[in-house]
Amino acid sequence: MVQLARVEWRLRRAAAPLCPRTSAGFGLALDHIAAYGAGDRAMVASLLAMADAPQVYAVEPESPADRAGVRAGDEILAIDGVATADLLARSPDKSLFSDELAARMAAHTAGQPLLLRLRRAGTELALKLTPETICNAPFVLRTSSAVDAYSDGARLAVTSGLIAFTRDEDELALIAGHELAHVVNGDGKAKGLAERRRMEDDADVLGAAIARCAGYDVPLALGFWQRYRKGDLLGFLRAPTHGSSSARAAHIAGTAAAPCPLDPSATPGLR
């Protein structure tokens, strides 16, 4: 969860100039005890010191949350004067409460301060966070042994199986960047195989550009394709809609690097 949150923050931040939809970004990730099965909650509460309040589980360096002094383990008691306990009571699905809070914060106006009332080690404090503009494409972690990543046009999902198979964050960012590129390009249902292949090729190049401008080592990450070419671990990447592993790596490596920060007028793969 922490690793994906870090990749998500960096990619969505880098892609912001290209995205048709943007949102407020704070650089923190939230969790809540209701997201876990009833039989696991006692263990989770003990291991993570998690109570009824939503908890910050990750704060990204140099982010608005980091600059404001938010720390992992902080409990969020109120957002802009609205108690999270009241929001929880009104939640239609408490298992998704942390996602609801994240969406509430994302709807805030970028550049305008947001007040969080927190509890840290029993002490309450109030912090003002001034969010940045990021791409409006939330990441979702799916617990699955399948090695997979996909998008629905608005969000993108990464499986725990994919995270386990990637060697480092550079590789994870390359694959997640590909799916984010589909969101940026507004890719939907293709009219045929040729159009789908063009979408996938563009997403490979644009996703690599996003990953590079987010600070990841794309040439190093291209080793991902070589390591899995011999096996049958990534069937979703070998579908007829995608080129071969070696062809995809060569296509990315042979495309001129986009300038950073990303510019809509000079970014390969952007449609």
Report on this structure.
The chain has 271 residues and is an alpha+beta fold. The chain folds into two domains: 24-134, PDZ domain (Pdz3 Domain, Roll); 136-253, no CATH class. Helix content is 40%, strand content 18%. It contains eleven helices and eleven strands. It has helices spanning 2-15, 41-48, 64-68, 84-90, 97-106, 160-165, 169-185, 193-213, 218-221, 223-229, 245-253; strands spanning 22-25, 28-31, 55-59, 75-79, 82-83, 114-120, 123-129, 132-135, 139-142, 149-151, 156-159. The strands form four sheets. Strands 5-4-6-7 form a four-stranded antiparallel β-sheet. A three-stranded mixed β-sheet has the order 9-11-10. Strands 1-8 form a two-stranded antiparallel sheet. A hairpin with a 2-residue loop joins β4 (75-79) and β5 (82-83). The longest helix has 21 residues, at 193-213. It is globular, with a radius of gyration of 19 Å. The two termini are 31 Å apart. The model has no long low-confidence stretch (mean pLDDT 93).
